[in-house]
Design a protein that fits this description.
It is a single chain. By secondary structure, this protein is α+β, with helices and mostly antiparallel strands. 32% of the residues lie in helices and 20% in strands. It is elongated, with a radius of gyration of 18 Å.
Length: 117
Amino acid sequence: MSNDSEPTESYDGSLTVRLLDDDEGREDVRCSSYNEAIGVVRDNRYSTTVIKIIDRDGDVVFDSVDMDIDNWETEWKHAKRRLSVEVEEHDCPYDNVACFADDLCVQCKMDKVQNQQ
């Protein structure tokens, strides 16, 4: 089922999920989208020592040593949304990096409600 509000992405296998295991060695899994790559990371995150997502330019965009896949996915979705639509500029007074004008953090939502009364 397709969600019309999300842009479709296809990378023709140009994304690689690299599974590094102390016992099993290295395995590269080719993925056609970031969503597929995120699924591979989730499926293997407890059975592999290190997991990396490598883009078509050879840059490591995710490394399980430095990041949690759930947090990375949230940031990736926000970055994708910022690129696909114009969003009103918003500086969170609480320095929350996941706070946007169209998706406020809890503290900013509370401030907004208090200011409306």
